[in-house]
Amino acid sequence: FYDGSVAVYNIADENKQPKYQSTSRNGKHTDPVWQVSWQKDDLDNNLNFFSVSSDGRVVCWTLIKNDLTYTDVVQLKLEKPANQTEEGLPLISLGCGTCFDFNQQQDYLFIVGTEEGKIHKCSKSYNNQFLDTFDAHHMAVYAVRWNKFHPKVFASCSADWSVKIWDINYKDPLFVYDLGSPVGDVIWAPYSSTVFAACTADGKVYVFDLNVNKYEPLCEQMVVQKKRTKLTHITFNQHYPILLAGDDRGNITSLKLSPNLRKRPKAKKGQETTDGPEAEVAKLEKILSLIRDPDDVRNKSTAQKGATNAVSGAN
């Protein structure tokens, strides 16, 4: 909630009141909560979820009997040197968390976006430090999303009008797209490692497929007609070619992807077409290997000489 509390509801109950709710006595956030996410049950089989807030805390909430208990997992400390107060005690300032996402393959690993434009790589096991920090955007980060197939690739979007595609091992983005308006959300498709969609404050939805066109969207469509209506969130249906887009007036628009947005590139003669998660990872990896800095690739692994030569030749 905007007042900093989190709540858990049981939709099977006729009673519409929350079953659990945080209060000022049990760790309530002091600023708005922007995102919550269920996690796997803990070692004692208790339900638990995470929340991120502008107060700079990422919190794990555990449902134990009738209580909601909390543990601070990460405090988003700013990199600036601490200010000295009159008494000489250092003041530690915290960044404002806006979004997070957990890795699909390594669920201890997660990334957090902030209002300052940073993206922090974090672990559930280390609550005092970040594993890495990316100077990702010039303005607030609105969403960070791991790729559904590739364990090292994620997307981010921001109020600075951009969507960026990242490899967790590289400090610079692999792709940058300027969409001409603040980008409220970005989401990877569940059926392809190279397809993602984004929505913007000027009411448009974009669909990209890196395997078809690395530089332009396949689709750019106005979704909300009313002026001054911002699209804030977007998501794919997990089983059908359907997108849902939410706006700041509380409306949800359901969109169906046309067949040309779902077409698969034809295989060349003599080539076998392969399906499944491994094929999706290989498809995305092939595209990214042409983009990564040749010097970085050469330094990281001599096993990738072929990709390096291909990039050098292209340049």
Automatic annotation (TrEMBL):
SMART domains given in the database record: WD40 (SM00320)
WD repeat extents: 134-176
Ranges of compositional bias, category Polar residues: 300-315
SUPFAM superfamilies (UniProt xref): WD40 repeat-like
Keywords linked to the UniProt accession: Cell projection, Cytoplasm, Cytoskeleton, Dynein, Microtubule, Motor protein, Repeat, WD repeat
Protein's organism: Rotaria magnacalcarata
Pfam family, one: WD40
Protein family per UniProt: Belongs to the dynein intermediate chain family.
Disordered, as annotated region: 259-278, 295-315
InterPro entries reported in the protein's UniProt record: Dynein_IC (IPR050687), WD40/YVTN_repeat-like_dom_sf (IPR015943), WD40_repeat_dom_sf (IPR036322), WD40_rpt (IPR001680)
An individual GO BP term: outer dynein arm assembly
Subcellular location: Cytoplasm, Cytoskeleton, Cilium axoneme
GO CC terms of this entry: microtubule; outer dynein arm
Single GO molecular function: dynein light chain binding
Name this polypeptide is given: Dynein intermediate chain 1, axonemal
Keyword Cytoplasm annotated: yes
